Each structure stands twice: as C-alpha cells, then as structure tokens.
Amino acid sequence: MAVRAAVAGASGYAGGEALRLLLAHPEVEIGVLTGNSNAGQKLGALQPHLLPLADRVLAETTPEVLAGHDVVFLALPHGQSAAVAEQLGPDVLVVDMGADFRLKDPADWEKFYGSPHAGTWPYGLPELPGGRAALEGSKRIAVPGCYPTAVSLALFPAYAAGLAEAEAVVVAASGTSGAGKAPKPHLLGSEVMGSMSPYGVGGGHRHTPEMIQNLSAAAGERVTVSFTPTLAPMPRGILATCSASAKEGVTAESLRAAYEKAFADEPFVHLLPEGQWPATASVHGSNAVQVQVAYDEAAGRIIAISAIDNLTKGTAGGAVQSMNIALGFPEELGLSTIGVAP
Amino acid sequence: MAVRAAVAGASGYAGGEALRLLLAHPEVEIGVLTGNSNAGQKLGALQPHLLPLADRVLAETTPEVLAGHDVVFLALPHGQSAAVAEQLGPDVLVVDMGADFRLKDPADWEKFYGSPHAGTWPYGLPELPGGRAALEGSKRIAVPGCYPTAVSLALFPAYAAGLAEAEAVVVAASGTSGAGKAPKPHLLGSEVMGSMSPYGVGGGHRHTPEMIQNLSAAAGERVTVSFTPTLAPMPRGILATCSASAKEGVTAESLRAAYEKAFADEPFVHLLPEGQWPATASVHGSNAVQVQVAYDEAAGRIIAISAIDNLTKGTAGGAVQSMNIALGFPEELGLSTIGVAP
Amino acid sequence: MAVRAAVAGASGYAGGEALRLLLAHPEVEIGVLTGNSNAGQKLGALQPHLLPLADRVLAETTPEVLAGHDVVFLALPHGQSAAVAEQLGPDVLVVDMGADFRLKDPADWEKFYGSPHAGTWPYGLPELPGGRAALEGSKRIAVPGCYPTAVSLALFPAYAAGLAEAEAVVVAASGTSGAGKAPKPHLLGSEVMGSMSPYGVGGGHRHTPEMIQNLSAAAGERVTVSFTPTLAPMPRGILATCSASAKEGVTAESLRAAYEKAFADEPFVHLLPEGQWPATASVHGSNAVQVQVAYDEAAGRIIAISAIDNLTKGTAGGAVQSMNIALGFPEELGLSTIGVAP
Amino acid sequence: MAVRAAVAGASGYAGGEALRLLLAHPEVEIGVLTGNSNAGQKLGALQPHLLPLADRVLAETTPEVLAGHDVVFLALPHGQSAAVAEQLGPDVLVVDMGADFRLKDPADWEKFYGSPHAGTWPYGLPELPGGRAALEGSKRIAVPGCYPTAVSLALFPAYAAGLAEAEAVVVAASGTSGAGKAPKPHLLGSEVMGSMSPYGVGGGHRHTPEMIQNLSAAAGERVTVSFTPTLAPMPRGILATCSASAKEGVTAESLRAAYEKAFADEPFVHLLPEGQWPATASVHGSNAVQVQVAYDEAAGRIIAISAIDNLTKGTAGGAVQSMNIALGFPEELGLSTIGVAP
C-alpha cells in the first residue's frame, strides 16, 4: 500500500529533485506540493521537466495543507523546519532536506548558523557505521548536506580502519544547483560558464562541522577538516578530493582492503577498480557514489575521491533512501544507480 | 515473461543509451553486449555510468553471439546492419538505430550515402499518422534519425492539417553526443565549449531526405526542407526551430487546434501551454518531446519548435518505444517523461 | 592627443566590455565611470577582470559627472539615453549602446518598445552600404543591436546584389551575456548549462524591426524577417543562421562573388574559404565577423551564416569602431581580429 | 627594431596561444610556423581564431626552416626540444614551452618522464625569488608547466616568509586545453561537459617534482607536495587550491603581510582585496594571476588560492613575459592583465 508524500518547497532544486525521484517510486503517491513565493502557480511553469505534474498547483506551506500525509519532505530555508515538524505530529515521517537537525553540538550550530539550535534528528547517511540502525522506524530524518555526504563517504573508511591521522584536507567542486535557485549575479550562466572559483574559504562553510562530526565519529577522536568548496561550471555533481596523512604502516593494500570492506555490501557505493577514477558525469541523476582511494607514498598521504550527484545522493536521493529504511521498504526502491551520461 | 535483448555496438553513445533504458525496462533481460574495437573489455571502463553492467565483457559482433535473443538492438556504423539482420532470422525483432533502413527511395539513399540501398523497414516514429500501425507485430524497426524525430514532430501537424506551404526551413541545435564517440579534433571539449557552429550546410546533411520523406507524407505533396544543423556546447539535446509559410486563412487558433488534435493522445509529446517554450534541459534523459507553435503574422510563417533528448527520444528511447509496440507491451513501459533537470 | 571617454553603466556587460576595449585603445583615456545601483562601489568588485581599473569607484549617472569628456558611452536601460544626451551638448560624441536611436520609423519603435520615439542617430554598422559616410564626423552614434549586427552582415550582400527574395528566415543562437547581468531565474547557470531554448518567438523580439530596416535598405524593397532567437549554453557569441529564397538564376558562383565583393575591403569581416564554417569561439573577444554563404539548390534557398562576439562586434566593439570613424582615427585602432580560442 | 620569432608546433594549443600573443606584441614580427603532421596546411583551417595569419602555410619542423630567427618558440612533444635547440646555435633565444629543461634533478626527470635528462635552462617564472635575474640576457628559457605556475605563485610567499610547514596539499582544476589538441575519447566535449574528474592521482602527475623544486627553493628545505589535478568543464583556466600547515605563531595579519610583500611590485600578480576570491573567468586570455590567502585557524592551515589562464600565464604568456626580460624589453610589453569576461 502506497504512502502519501507531500513536498514543502517544491519549486526549488531540492524539492524538484525529490519529486523527480518520488514519481518513480512504486510505493509513493504524491500529495500536496507547496512553495511560498510561488503559491498559486502551476508546477509546469516552474519545473517543466516534471511533465506528469505539470498541472499541479502549488499551495502555501501551512500545517493544514501538509496534514494527512504519511511522509512530508521539507525543502525549506534553514530555520523553518522545526515549526513545521512540530505541527505535523509524531506519527508523520518528516524528512528534512535542510540543515536544521543535522548537527549534534548546539555550539556548532550557533557558531555557523547564528540562531538557536533546534535539535538533532537521526542522520540520513545509512552507509556510515551504525547509520542504518539509526534510521529504522524513525519518524524524523535529517538528510545530510551534499558536501558532507561526498566527503564522509570518501574518508570514513580510512578513519574507521585507523589508517588516517586526524587532520583532513578537502577540496570539493560542486555544480551550481548546490547554490539554489534564488537568482544572484554570481550564479548567472554568464558568470559561471567557463569559470572555477572558490567560496567560503578558510573554514567558514556551514558544512564543515558536519564533516567533522561524521569523520570524528568514525575515527573515535576529533578530526580537523580544512574544507574548500569550489563552484564548477556544471549544473550538478560534486567531486570531493580528500586527503589525510597516513598513519605509520599504511600500505596501498591495507588501504584498499579497508575500502573494500567498508563498501562490500553497499548498494549505492561503487568502489572503482584500481586505475579508474570517479567522474561526476557517471553518477548524473543517480543515487550512486563512485569512490576511489590511493596512497601517495612520497607525500605520505591517503587520497580518497568521491563523485556524487549533489541533488540525488547528496540531497533528495539520500532522503528517499533514508525514507525507505525508515518505512521498512527495500532500501533501493525507486532509486537508480545508473547515471545519465554522456 | 521477459524478453532477452542483445545490444550490438554497446560501447558507443547510442548503445550505451539503449542499455541505460533497457536496464530500467521491467520486461527486458539484458543479453549479450558487443563492440568490435572494444571487444574483450569490461563495460565499466567504457560506460562507467552503467554501474549494474560494470563487469560485463564486450563480445565481438558476430551472428553467433547475437543468436538466441528475442530482440537485437543494432548501434552500428551505417552499412553494417543488413548483413547482421539477415543472419538473425525473421523471428528475431531487430531494432536498427542506424540509418540503413529509414529511407524509402533508393535514389535518396544512394545520393546521400553513396552505397547501394539495403531496403526499408517499418519506421519507428509512432506519433506520425499511421505510425503505430506500421510497427505492431513487426520484426524489423528502423529507428529514425535524431534530427528527423525532432523536426517531424514539430512540423507534421501543420502539414497534416493543410496549414503550411510545402517549403520548410529548419535550423536545429544538437548536443555533441549526436556526433558520436569517435574522437575527432573538432569534437574536443576545448573546441565545443563556448562555441556554436554549423555543419552540413546547404542541404548536405544525411537527415534531410528523411525529413522530406516524413513531411511530404503528412502533407500529401512534396515538401522541400532547408536544413541547417548546428553543434551546441552541451552533451545532449536537440532544439529544432522549424518554420513554413502559412497557407491563406491560417490563424493562431487554427494552428493551435491542429497541434492539440495531433498530440491529444500522445504519451510522450507535450504541447506546452501558450507562452511557454521548449528547452532541451526539460527533456534531458527522458523520452518526452516538448513542442510549441506560433503564428508570426508579420512574416506570414508558422514557427514550430521542439526539444528532445537526441539519445533518448531521438535514438534509444524511440527504439524502446517502438519495440514496446512491436512486442505488444504498453507503449510507455520502461520509459520516462521526466527530465533530469537542472 | 588622447580623447577622454566616460562610460555610463559601467557595471553591466556592455559597459564592462566597452572598458575592456577602451583600456587597449591607444588614443583613449578612461574618465568617469558610472553605475546607478552600484554607485560608490569599486569596479574591482563588480568587474574583476578589468584589473587596471580595480580601484576605480563608480559614480552616479548624472550630467554633471559625465560633463567634460570628449566621448560618452551609454550602456543604459532603454529610454534613458535621450535625457542624458541632451544634457551633454552637441560637441560631445555620444555613443549609445542601447536601442533608443536605432529605428527610423517611430511606429516600429512604439510597437516594440511601447514608449514615444526619441529620434534616430547615425547607425554604427560601417559595413552596410553607405555606413561609413554616415558616421564620419558625427557626434551621435546609435550602436546596432547584437542580433541585427550578425544578421545584417550575413544577409545584406545577397540583398544588395539582388539575389534574394524579400523574405528572410533567421534563427540565431546567443550566449547568455546578451541577456544582461540582472539576475533572473531562467538565466542561472543551473538553468542554461546543458540547455538550448528559444524566446521571443513569432516576431516579438525587439531586434526584428532593426533587421528589417537594414535588409530592406539593402534590398530596395520591404523585406520580411522571421526571427527566432535562442539562448545557448555559452557566455558569449552569436551564431546567426539566415536564409532567403534565391531569385531566379542565382548560382553558387554568383552568390560567392556578391559576398566577396561586399567584404573585399572590410577589415573586420572575414568571408571564410569555401568549405569552412563560422564558429563563435573563433571570434571570442574579438571584433571580427566570420561569414560563409551557400546555395541550397534543392531547397532553392541562400544560406548565409555569421558568427560574432555579441559583446564585442555586437556591442562595444562596434561602438569603438564607429567612434574611430566619427573621430577620424584609423577604423581598426584598438580593436583586434584575433579571437581568444580555444 | 623588431625581433623575428618562429613558432614550432603552431597547430596545437600552446603554439596557437603563442601566436595570439605575439601578434599583439609591438616588437615581434612573426616568422616561420611549423607543425609536423599538419605541414602544408593553412593555419586558417587549424587555428581559425588567428585571422591575420589565416593564409600562412605550416612548414615541417626542421633546423633549416627555423634558422634565421631571433627567437624560436618550441611547442613540441617532450623529448624533442634538445635536438632542435642544439641546431639553432647559442645566439638564438630559444623558448621551450615543453617540459624538457624545467627540472634540475636528473633523477626527478627520469622518474617522471622515463628518458635521459636533457639539462636545465633558466626557469621562466620571474615572480619567484631571483627569478628575473636568472632570465636577463639568457638565450635559453624553460617555460614552467601550467600547474607549477599556479601553485608556485600561490604558495611561495608563505614558504619564503617561513610561515608554512614543509608539506603542501594541492588540488587544482584545469580547463581541458591543458590536455592538448590530440583527440582522445575522454577529452570529447560529450565527456567533459557537465563533469569533473581527477587524473594522475597519488603523486603521479609530471608537474609534481616541478612544484616541489620551486617550493623547496622558497622554503630552504624539502617540501612535500600532495598534488591532485582535476579536469573541469571549461576550455581554459586553472584554479589551484593549495594549503599547508601553518607554523606556530602565524596570524591572518602576518600571512597577509607576507603576500603583500611578495607581490607588491609584480605587474601580473593581483593579490585580491580581503574577502574577494580568484575566478578563472577573470583572467581568461590574460597574463594576470589572481591570488588570495586565508588562515583557517580551526584547521591550523594556510589556504592559498590562485587563478591563471593555463594557456596564457600558464604557458605562452609566461613565455612572452620571460622573452621580454631576456631581450631587455619592458616586461609587460604585448601582454595584458585584462581578462575576457564574462
């Protein structure tokens, strides 16, 4: 029997991607769609790629219209999810694709977001140690940030296996959809095409504490993360190039073994054959993760690289995967590991 | 009961797209994959986005390895399909994504391809008048060219309704995957990014006679087509801007009515609401077609514009749709009308 | 002795390109820069590519700050140039990169812009018949629109030589900078990358009457133009694919001869060798125009294609070229015919 | 009096860029152009953006045709420069844009290139400590690699000032022109557009020892470099994100001061104002370098980021700049700090 799902914030990129995936989910029936500034408009004018929903009209995001659904996906600006979730009651599965409930340490939240901490929900990254168990039967899910998804999957096996020193350096390139649909001059096509540029340099990006949280948990000690995000001239995709000093005694073989073990039974993570490297095009539109790892002996560093689609595995795909676990559906239901390439 | 499908030419773009779609088809089991120059290699090294088939090894394209399948998709260089089809026998459904069997007039074939004509197979564009009937139960399908798919769908309603003069002017922009995967200097990323350029100008493109064939059939008279293809800096998609002089008495209303009638029951063609125009991103990776039409009163011309994904509806999606009809499956089975956007 | 030039609207794309070119002009000294909403900001924050002007502060656009210059370039929203020009007095050379003074027929202006017509200035397309003479010594220049520049240069030789019927069909692809720097959702990188889409279809684009004006003048009769602009996933460049029915007796040779004659002495227009076709990358950042022409005998049409950089030859380069003529400088001074490719 | 310059390897990207710059150089007259596989062809067919040289015919690369020039630019596959240079005699200025003479340590060369070391020439990165002096009057110049240019300029000030520990981590994104013009499947536009991917991971990229050489010289101790290059969907540009552990006592102020001092008199390096970050679009086609630096206190790392055009400052612009110094011309002659943006 299908569950009925509402999407709050259906006019943005995260909401649109959630709908794209939910339309293909055999156990989901799409309920109310909301979008504040676009309330009253047809979805076909805002998300013309979602052909089957072209005539759906967006409602305003109120507790009343969201009531009566089994699942509610929230794609709202940060700070708005708590109030909505509270009104929905404890029996509704609320899947928050925003940041509000990802961080465990209120001090982290306050430092990076400048507002009171709303709480912590089970974290929607099943591939982490203990990740699935935390989601089973849960009625609240905090979907990870796109960068933390890519970075945590690239590096946690090295930390979990005790192979890496507690200082990671991460440079990640993201497609522009990660910056959202609100029009700003620096996100214009004229500005981004043909250009690479960094932002949030020096430790200021809000996804940094989330990476630290995940990697520290895997390592059993506090890991520092130097994180530099860059904007790449492509609509989708994250390529995360991560490294950490190798602990003494690490070899290419022990490293490979740790990654093989970590991902042996993972349906969405593909540890590439040796010599092949991730490419974001290969996971375009899919929930798959490509990972590869190398040991740079001369520099003494472990290099782990992952590619995800920031909107799919990095946001809405991770949300649906987590929903599947929470509701007891097969984890892969409605999700694909096949990229749209070239 | 599933049918077993082989793909000959699995390392190229058309073959890869066929596999992407067949993997999602509930009634198809993927059989042998072949690729001549890449025979012996794993598909994962050649088509890394097709994760579930990563360990499949390509065979050489021989009648022996293709035998024993219910369906064989051919993605071969032109001129090679006839020999393969002959060996497969009359009971195997052969779906040719190449050009060999598209043209009815041997003179057209010889003029544009410079070799003897192999014959004519039922034409895989079900949306054309009489298109479905020709495919039902057929064991041979000639999949249309990508440009003719886009152009014929944009213009045939005007011709079928007797609204357009028999001279069409078409300028179409195609993503680079339409030019194939064989590496050539002018197809390098360095050359195509940031650049638009035409090719095959002046009536020389091989898809021209196919457009003329389709539009003339709809019009009931010989239609001339001035066709200029252009290469656009994107991997996928065709935007076809087509026009023809309006016959006397044409109005915006009569034009709209003709298009509404032509596409009323079409599952894959979406005539956009007035004021909205096609975009290739909206149909990226999907089998949908976006169409819009306008009457330019000052110039006296009908402007009809379509957007397709050249690899999906323009090649492998059209192939699967036609296969569904030929085998008696629901026409939409395994195909999506949802684009991967942004 | 250098002339002193001000640029009003220096924070936008046209103003920025004017500055890029004027910085390289040996007879120009850059004076005041203005920008209304950005007044008070440093140019380095708005146009970081104009390194030598990084510390310049934008003034508000007032007659006072613009006074005292030999030349004033206007890159203002349409409807604002007349008031500014009036205040500058008749001895200042005013080069308007906006639309206000391009059209001769007030009815055209009112139909397409919906406001009273401000007048007509000498038209800055020296390559047109009589074009240079109109600019020599002039103190007012109306810089053509980017599309009309590309289209007029592609087609006027055929009309001037009496080879083409009076109905032209134009489909042009433009880089996104043609749509300006004001942020709008459909111009986001996420939306335009990987996508082609038309706009202003059916005769509504404001550059249409300007094309008709130019081609009709060349033809000596009223030419209709069916014009469809499309947005291409690149920051710069226009590829204009233009065609018209050939008059009786036209041959490939007579056509080629007409184009060779028209461009024989043109420093910026490069009629390509036969068999080679324009590409926007080849003229990226340059004032050059690539043109090629073909006769499609089967369709009975002349196909003329041009490539320009919409910001250079299509806007600020055309402006500087016209300024050179008006001030008696060598026409090519400070301008390049070398594109930045790949 | 102008010098006469030949370019060997004029059909590739480095050779084409050298010609683009030399055409704009007031003291250079362009002599013979060579290109082995393309000998006999017109340059207009191979480099259509170099309009003024369209009718030049490529010669074969022989000592005879290169004789009689004041300067010879070599854009040859590695391993071929020594033989050519030897024949040219000691009075000709030979500027090698290939790798052959960059490395000082023969062991480095042999390890990374697998052939005998040809020697070491004065290194064409004038901004390095002592860099200019080494070039003055020299008749041989080894132009740096594109990545080492970007990385060395980003990091040497921190090392020269004793602020950084001797382990650097570099992740750089390059436009595809860095991979050259020889057509390979993974460089097709269809493959690179919309995709980011790494290559040469784990210390294997040939530019690594060159970075180590430069940074170690600045630091006065052996610096390790973990270098990961990535291919970005753009034709030009390198964004180098570099970091190193900060030594004790480093502050944001001391870091900024070191960079201000290092670049105070540099005509091509622009240390951006605080809060502004490099973008490759800003230096497109120019010889400028944008640099910014930050201190990530939480991670204890210095983050230095640079943007260059890989073909200009990263190859041919650096070559011309070094030629200017060697010949006693003003260093900036014929070179621009203005990018072509957007």
From TrEMBL, chains A, B, C, D:
A GO cellular-component term linked to this record: cytoplasm
Gene3D superfamilies: Dihydrodipicolinate Reductase, domain 2, NAD(P)-binding Rossmann-like Domain
The protein's annotated pathway: Amino-acid biosynthesis; L-arginine biosynthesis; N(2)-acetyl-L-ornithine from L-glutamate: step 3/4
CDD domains found in the cross-reference section: AGPR_1_actinobacAGPR_like (cd24148), AGPR_1_C (cd23934)
Enzyme class: oxidoreductase
Any coiled-coil regions, as ranges: none
SUPFAM superfamilies noted in UniProt: Glyceraldehyde-3-phosphate dehydrogenase-like, C-terminal domain, NAD(P)-binding Rossmann-fold domains
Acetylation in keyword set: no
Active site: C146
Molecular function via GO: N-acetyl-gamma-glutamyl-phosphate reductase activity; NAD binding; NADP+ binding
EC number: 1.2.1.38
Superkingdom of the organism of origin: Bacteria
GO terms of biological process kind: L-arginine biosynthetic process
Ranges of residues in domain Semialdehyde dehydrogenase NAD-binding: 4-136
Main location: cytoplasm
Record carries keyword DNA repair: no
Compartments reported by the entry: Cytoplasm
Catalyzed reactions: N-acetyl-L-glutamate 5-semialdehyde + phosphate + NADP(+) = N-acetyl-L-glutamyl 5-phosphate + NADPH + H(+)
Keyword line: Amino-acid biosynthesis, Arginine biosynthesis, Cytoplasm, NADP, Oxidoreductase
Task performed by this protein: Catalyzes the NADPH-dependent reduction of N-acetyl-5-glutamyl phosphate to yield N-acetyl-L-glutamate 5-semialdehyde.
Entry's family note: Belongs to the NAGSA dehydrogenase family. Type 1 subfamily.
Xref: PANTHER family: N-ACETYL-GAMMA-GLUTAMYL-PHOSPHATE REDUCTASE, CHLOROPLASTIC-RELATED, N-ACETYL-GAMMA-GLUTAMYL-PHOSPHATE REDUCTASE, CHLOROPLASTIC-RELATED-RELATED
Name of this chain's protein: N-acetyl-gamma-glutamyl-phosphate reductase
Origin organism lineage: Bacteria, Bacillati, Actinomycetota, Actinomycetes, Kitasatosporales
